[in-house]
Amino acid sequence: FALLYPGKRQKNNFRRFSFDDFSTLSFEEPDTKTFRCLDLAYRAIKIGKTATAVLTAANDIAVEAFLAKKLPFWRIPDVVESTLLVHKNREYSSLSEILEVDSWARNKAHEFVVKFGN
């Protein structure tokens, strides 16, 4: 569904996935060089404080710009990383502080969309 948003789910001829069809599953380490936003998310979690709020806000703006055809897909991590790099990470103690950081990050991410955009 997410790949077709905002459209509706399309019918296909594929069988539904069933875990019963697989006796074992194996998982590999994620490729954080290819999937840079995953690496940025891991880093924001390790840093803590307001970094995760900034990451989320910047990602929201970058994806919104991509969907509006204002930013190439491959530039999404550039917007997110640039926003994180200029953010002065700090502790927070209230929702209003998080909302303030969120607003700042969204505005800053818009600036980077203009810089990296089409």
From TrEMBL:
Pfam families: DXPR_C. GO terms for molecular function: 1-deoxy-D-xylulose-5-phosphate reductoisomerase activity; isomerase activity; manganese ion binding; NADPH binding. The keyword Transcription does not apply. Keywords: Isomerase. It comes from the Bacteria. The lineage of its organism: Bacteria, Candidatus Curtissiibacteriota. GO terms for biological process: isopentenyl diphosphate biosynthetic process, methylerythritol 4-phosphate pathway involved in terpenoid biosynthetic process. Residues 2-107 form the DXP reductoisomerase C-terminal domain. This is 1-deoxy-D-xylulose 5-phosphate reductoisomerase.
